[in-house]
Amino acid sequence: MLLQKKSASFVGHCAGYIASGFGYGRAKKNVELSSMLDVGKWPVFALLPPEELRLIRQACVFGSAANEAFYVTVNDEVFALGTNCSGCLGLGDLQSTIEPRRIDILCGKKIVSLSYGTGPHVAIATADGEVFAWGHNGYSQLGNGTTNHGLTPALVSTNLLSKRVTEVACGSHHTIALTTDGEVYAWGYNNSGQVGSGSTANQPTPRRVSSCLQNKVVVNIACGQLCTMAVLDNGEIYGWGYNCNGQLGLGNNGNQQTPCRIAALQGVNIVQVACGYAHTLALTDEGMVYAWGANSYGQLGTGNKSNQALPTLINTDKERLVEVAACHTSHTSAAKTQSGQVVMWGQCRGQAVVSPHLTHFGSTDDVFACFATPAVTWHLLSVDGDDYLTVAQSLKKEFDSPEISDLKFLVDGKCIHVHKALLKIRCEHFRALLNEMEEETIEVHQFSYLVYRAFLEYLYTDTINLPPEDAIGLLDLATFYRETRLKRLCQETIKRGISEENAITLLSAAVKYEARDLEEFCFKFCINHLTAVTQTQAFADMDHDLLKNFISKASRYGAFKN
């Protein structure tokens, strides 16, 4: 059968979404199975039997010698093991345990973010937006108004009961929390102003960090040992607290008791920040990395060991980066490229690696497991079992597998093997089409093999894996088939991949396919990088009407004023 574009009656929204497994505690959506970590790389888990390891879906390793750990099973049970310093395992006592013990109060809570201090103390955020904290509390870092150590997880309630927290971060002895409203709350040790209250008095309960963050929306947070960083929705980045190594990026070494914008990054759109012991990494929307702060181990990746009080662009000699990683307990840095390559630099098992070094790892987590000192996790891990597959993982595995498929698409002379039942469940277009036909092969000429395969794979996985330029073709398909969610995913992919060279091409596509949000994003990117964008070939070849509208709109934004 030959398949062309069908009439509107055959197209529609997806009928349902496949549930995916646990995600990272920050920032990281649609985690691919290939990037999930084998928890066996951490020695603290070495005595767990294989049947227990296969049940683990989330994990965190912490402590002064990486000798304490939590993990969450597929049944959402939470376990702890290790030395239990200051009661940081949350088990109700100070006893160390070489065998896992269950933390009953956290079972079923669905942890979405976890962080730890050096006391250590531990803080988590749950799917319901609650914050629990326990462990060392000598500086009120548990936020309960006392300095008594907490032996069991306790709800942090002051000023947070009406808020939904999505992310937590800990410094050595202070804690910060980010809410769905983009507000930041902080409490605990404040000798250098790291709580952002305008003083150096310790903060016993959560207090909103306001000052110049008032009426602004924060989207990402991180803590160094004694400093705090926050990224805003407009790409600005602020820092406060200890600054003797220049880790706030302000061009000086003075501590700051309230948030200060990093003026040196004016016009640069930051999307993620990560803090080491006394250095900071920031990822831009163009996939570049800036670093500043302490550099005695080469952790800035500048090729030398000189501290930097201002953001310095790091040359990785690689493609676009999509993730940066650092931990306040170490001087190690890592980053991941768009194609999945991982680079590392800084203190790596005692060596000072002063420039980004390409590794064979598939995850930044592997860098910290194998090379950081101590070998702790830099964020909440998602762990894939050896032989246990969720429904979503099983479907992903069977996509384009001829073994049990009952339908194949022929596109550009290549076959894509699928299952009629799944296509009918997932997409109204195929439900209508396949109910009218009995053929086992469908030829497609309207779309390329790459685009159509990505579309079918999306129906199996709920994710797309295409570079931004190819995502334009998938956006065309999604627009015609009226696949609203797929269209949104395409727009997100295009946003992540925008650059000065392709910005005009992506803007043109957004206008063509009436993707208003994407159009506005691309336009603002072009305005923020106007000089470079106007020198590209794409700008020279720009459609006359689009160029006319672009210049008119840019004028209204004041882009051509002196």
From TrEMBL:
It comes from the Eukaryota. The keyword Ribosomal protein does not apply. RCC repeats lie at residues 76-127, 129-181, 182-234, 235-286, 287-338. Gene3D superfamilies: 1.25.40.420, Potassium Channel Kv1.1, Chain A, Regulator of chromosome condensation 1/beta-lactamase-inhibitor protein II. Residues 405-468 form the BTB domain. The keyword Repeat applies. Transmembrane segments: none annotated. Keywords: Repeat. This is RCC1 and BTB domain containing protein 2. It comes from Sander lucioperca (Pike-perch). The lineage of its organism: Eukaryota, Metazoa, Chordata, Craniata, Vertebrata. The gene is rcbtb2.
